[in-house]
Specification:
The complex is a heterodimer. Chain A is built from 9 helices and 31 strands. Chain A is α/β, with parallel strands linked by helices. Chain A folds into 3 domains: 178 residues, 3-Layer(bba) Sandwich (FAD/NAD(P)-binding domain); 125 residues, FAD/NAD(P)-binding domain (3-Layer(bba) Sandwich), CATH 3.50.50; 80 residues, FAD/NAD-linked reductase, C-terminal dimerisation domain (Enolase-like, domain 1, 2-Layer Sandwich). Chain B has a two-stranded antiparallel sheet. Chain B has a two-stranded antiparallel sheet with strand order 2-3. The longest helix of chain B is centred in the middle third of the chain and has 10 residues. Classes of the chains: A alpha/beta, B alpha+beta. Chains A and B meet through strand 3, strand 24 and strand 25 of A and strand 3 of B.
């Protein structure tokens, strides 16, 4: 048999009777499973998920579910086809042994694989003080159960809600509170809401939007402690300026943490940044060498992006989960030269305070911003972000129809400031600094060290963190 | 039944709101919200809404819900 025929036979045999395990039973895991079957994979397929629920959609949780319109269990994702999988729901994966090709489950079981997809996503960062986090009325929101419990408490209704952190989730929660006519205080350590994702110029507009809708917005402040009553229910938040806010419900929206702990010791490039992989979803090992049998998709994946100087980006966006999973699944049942890259122009949306905020590209990659269409006063505008004379992102407030125009410019590495679309031109089109926060803040970076002297011995290793 | 709207693609044309207002709502001028698991009796309405969407952002289930062995 020729080499080519042997390889083709291998692929055919794997598709017919290989074993694929997907860890993560949310949007990325489900769409990957559907793609595998669509591509003709008829071997055994196991889907492992730590939550007891079948795949559901998360974006509605902080919006129509919290508002009380849609029940939390009405978020089940539509199925594009049967996946004929062995579903292992309600049991977390706790370990990966790449030498024996097995995933270890929390109940002690070992699940063998030939190819593995890691789609474990992220979780909400909890309020750092565990005693205060355990008080009744203190919430985070990521899962169906989180949303159901918070919705119940918002309906009671509370005397006041405190939201800690004004990123997208925190801002959406504050918006729902105002729609429900609940008093809400938002405490944000940065200079304005959404400042990390969209910069200070847009942040100021978001701040005004919140205040116009009756949010008690406190920026440049932290929450130093939460105080409970004798019954163990939260009653007050103490702020870093010495003031205090009485509240019965506190929502900590402090961002997300990637679910990589179960990969400790697996020898993959997995850490707080996610799991490093190539643009086809193939995981890197700790040395930065691509693996053949482990793939990554969704929020937990971090891959180089051609449009952004090949920097490694984690895109915690809905369409990244869908399209990244489809590309990874395709590559799991193919070999070179049939690999498909996942070349997504990132994009996200957020509905808050009656405004649809949408973005394409990577705004924090830019250092300048220019308003290109519409009116900031009417909160109906588009703006472009630039870096070194080229457009890298755009944001729109109730101007989503125009994002495609900017998306095409970004894909073609168009100039910044961009050529005007010839419509709806604002009076001032001078670029200004986009005012992203200084990234040089200390983070809890684990140490990766190089060991060995001879080229054949050189290898990377995680060094235990020193406290 | 189950649906999901690709809200990256959605541009707020609101044809779905017009055709199935119990399932789709606009929050303001452009921000779409919807009931992801509407009653089966709304299927015809929802299918019409999906067909009418100018950017084809509404995906409907092509097979019935839960498989054997899945919790719900």
């Amino acid at each position: 048999m020729t080499l080519r025929a042997t390889v083709a036979e291998l692929v055919r045999e794997f598709r017919a009777s290989g074993r694929i395990v997907i860890v993560g039973a949310s949007l990325a895991g489900l769409r990957a499973a559907e793609t595998l079957r669509e591509e003709g994979f008829t071997g055994s397929l196991t889907i492992i998920g730590d939550e007891p629920y079948e795949p559901y959609d998360r974006p509605p949780l902080s919006k129509q579910v919290l508002k009380g319109w849609v029940p939390a269990d009405h978020t089940k994702l539509p199925r594009m086809r049967d996946v004929d999988a062995d579903w292992r729901l309600g049991v977390a994966a706790v370990g990966l042994d790449r030498a024996t090709k097995q995933v270890r489950l929390a109940n002690g079981e070992q699940v063998p694989y030939d190819r593995l997809l890691i789609a474990t996503g992220t979780r909400a960062r909890q309020w750092p003080n565990p005693d205060e986090a355990a008080l009744q009325g203190v919430h985070t929101i990521r899962s169906r159960d989180d949303a159901a419990q918070l919705q119940k408490e918002l309906a009671e209704p509370p005397s006041r809600v405190v939201v800690i952190g004004a990123g997208f989730i925190g801002s959406e929660v504050a918006s729902v509170c105002r729609e429900l006519d609940l008093p809400v205080t938002v405490v944000e350590r940065g200079s304005a809401p959404l400042v990390g994702a969209l910069g200070g110029v847009i942040g100021e507009i978001a701040a005004q939007l919140q205040r116009d809708h009756g949010v008690d917005l406190r920026c440049g402040l932290g929450v130093s402690s939460l105080e409970g009553d004798s019954g163990g229910h939260v009653r007050r938040a103490h702020l870093s300026d010495g003031s205090a806010v009485d509240a019965d419900v506190v929502v900590a929206s402090l961002g997300s943490i990637r679910n990589v702990e179960w990969l400790e010791g697996s020898g993959l490039a997995a850490g707080f940044w996610g799991v490093g992989c190539d643009a086809g979803g193939r995981a890197f090992d700790i040395n930065g060498v691509v693996t053949d049998s482990v793939f990554v998709a969704g929020d937990v994946a971090r891959a180089p992006h051609v449009l952004y100087e090949y920097q490694f980006l984690a895109m915690e966006h809905w369409d990244n989960a869908v399209l990244g999973a489809q590309a990874a699944a395709h590559n799991m049942v193919n070999l070179e030269p049939h690999y498909r890259p996942h070349l997504l122009l990132p994009g996200f949306w957020s509905g808050q305070f009656g405004v649809n905020i949408k973005s394409v590209g990577v705004p924090p990659f830019g250092d300048e911003i220019v308003f290109t269409q519409g009116s900031v006063e009417e909160r109906h505008f588009a703006a472009a972000y630039g870096r070194r004379g080229r457009i890298v992102a755009a944001v729109a407030f109730d101007h989503g129809k125009w994002l495609e125009y900017y998306g095409r410019l970004i894909e073609r590495s168009g100039p910044f400031p961009p050529p005007p679309p010839g419509w709806d031109h604002p009076p001032d089109t001078k670029p200004v600094p986009a005012e992203f926060p200084d990234p040089r803040v200390p983070t809890a970076v684990p140490d990766v060290v190089l060991t060995g002297h001879a080229p054949s011995e050189r290898t990377a290793a995680f060094r235990p963190r020193r406290h | 039944m189950r649906i999901v709207v690709d809200l990256n693609r959605c541009q707020g044309y609101a044809q779905c709101v017009y055709l199935a207002h119990e399932v789709f709502r606009l929050n303001g001028q452009e921000a779409l919200t919807y009931e992801p698991n509407p009653d089966d009796e709304r299927r015809l309405q929802v299918e019409r809404a999906a067909a009418a969407c100018p950017v084809q952002a509404i995906a409907l289930d092509r097979v019935d819900g839960t498989e054997r062995g899945e919790a719900s």
